[in-house]
Amino acid sequence: MQNSVIKWVVGLLLVVGGLNWGLIGFNSSWNVVEMVFGGVPLLVQLTYWLVGLAALYKLAKMVGVMK
Question: pLDDT per residue over 19-59, tens digit each?
Fold first, then answer.
């Protein structure tokens, strides 16, 4: 149960991060994370940290560092 929740959260964060970077690539003025949390810089930074940690977690799983 806990493992599936972690996988779901990691997947969601990676989708959010990927879509955000895709939108920035298409139009540099669109940043969904800042649109949603723009009034609270700490939440913007926390979201970026979580996306980065999710990417590191996924990378570790892909290369076999974690089971």
Answer: 988 988 887 788 888 888 888 999 999 999 999 999 999 99
Compute the chain's Rg from CA coordinates.
Answer: 13
Q: In the chain, how many domains are there?
A: 1
Of 20, 21, 14, 26, nearest in space to 51 by CA = 14
pTM: 0.80
Identify the domain containing residue 52 by its residue range.
2-63
Q: Kind and range of the H or E element at 24?
A: helix 2-26
Both tokens of residue 13?
């964060």
H or E segment at 30?
A: none
